[in-house]
User: Fold this.
Amino acid sequence: AQKVTQAQTEISVVEKEDVTLDCVYETRDTTYYLFWYKQPPSGELVFLIRRNSFDEQNEISGRYSWNFQKSTSSFNFTITASQVVDSAVYFCALSGLIIQGAQKLVFGQGTRLTINP
Amino acid sequence: DGGITQSPKYLFRKEGQNVTLSCEQNLNHDAMYWYRQDPGQGLRLIYYSQIVNDFQKGDIAEGYSVSREKKESFPLTVTSAQKNPTAFYLCASSIVRGRIGQPQHFGDGTRLSIL
Assistant:
């Protein structure tokens, strides 16, 4: 069975601090995809990044960076120089092999990030 | 702009009543999904559909029903059999044909409460 664990339920930091959100996953699939989504107070989930199991290169996009380590089954997300607009709930998700074409995502419990001014 | 529209934003259900949540997408996506989100929890899959007139149960389908008569539309009915329907419901869609690992795109959600 697939499982995603985000052990940090809530994180609160002061603006401009760096913050790392942890994500640990379990899967028996050799091919799989990992995702991060942001859920602002408005409710919709906003796609941030996708990483496949064969690509362990870290990725940086502006103030956001992601560290994928297969050896520890982790896909952590770091925000550098955090801003108040980064306040949201962040979800890590895992997708394995396709079943009948549709893609079943398994989500972690989410981490509520609060950036205080 | 292309996107997913969910309506209504807020919905109240009386005891014994069925209610239907609307989800429409103009992204020309093949697959559509319904998720339930409870406070402090991740999203759980209710139903999903790869193609018109076909849908599959997710992890928590009991007390829910869906239809997929048009590619653009995937309404979710919360039946009276669902004893704890209070939650935030999210609809999503994704490309399917020949591509795996494509991200799902989400609507703004419907918040359902019991009267």
